[in-house]
Amino acid sequence: MINYCKNVSLGIALWFVFQSGAIAPPTDEIELKNGDLIFQSSLSSQSKAVQLATKSQYSHCGIIFKEGNKWYVFEAVQPVKRTPLNQWIARGQGGKYVVKRLKNADQVLTPAVLQQMKQVGDQFKGKNYDLTFEWSDDRIYCSELIWKMYQRTTGIEIGKLEKLNSFDLSDKAVKKKMRERYGDDVPMNEPVISPAAIFESELLVTVQSN
Question: Is the CB of residue 168 less than 8 Å from the CB of residue 55?
Fold first, then answer.
């Protein structure tokens, strides 16, 4: 089946995966809402280092929006873009995901605010992924995208900003990735927002997981 899927289009491949039951698509038990946040364990080369440094299984996240009758995840990968929700889920480790929502989303995320949030997101669309996790807007990483979209439209800071030196950088895998990205000049005082910090925010509530 795996070899076969390699020879068909992505859409057909995903159809086989979902039909097999190996990866479950989002359920209808909880209705998704615009502005929901979704988390997964990425299969990217840096995922393990992020998990070790932040002591969290979640290494990638995005923000959910509905366009027409389809759900998408707006995410900072290479480049910043929107990805169909089912494709986003299938890309993660084991197809596992968690959806979280602002506790007072119904009061805060009005149609006007959501429209503004999309406009802020459009300013980042197409920008390169930030491999060195800098706090400027020149390049963007996943949790930074979420944090800035919320903060700039609602004033709410989801997750506490930290600095690189606050993470556990002792593991060999983390040290290797740090050398690849920074060489000997590691910006230890650079402000950073991690997927774990957003995931653990007391401002959010879990609404869906598998």
Answer: yes
d(CA 150, CA 156): 6
Half-sphere exposure of 29 (CA within 13 A, CB side): 9
Low-confidence ranges of the chain (pLDDT < 50): 1-25, 27-29
Residue 79 C-alpha from the chain's centroid? 13
Backbone region of residue 92 per phi and psi (left: phi > 0; alpha: psi in -120 to 50; beta: other values): beta
Cα→Cα distances 102→12, 83, 86, 198, 204, Å: 34, 22, 22, 11, 5
Q: How many domains does the chain have?
A: 1
Interval 10-59: pLDDT, tens: 443 443 333 333 444 454 446 899 999 999 988 776 777 787 767 777 88
H helices of 66-182, where?
Answer: 85-91, 105-108, 111-124, 142-154, 172-182
**Structural domain span for residue 150:** 25-209
* Cβ burial, residue 82 (10 Å; 0-12/13-18/19+): middle
CATH of the domain at 93: 3.90.1720.10
Domain membership flag for residue 108: yes
Q: Is residue 8 part of a domain?
A: no
pTM across the whole model: 0.82
Q: Is residue 116 part of a domain?
A: yes
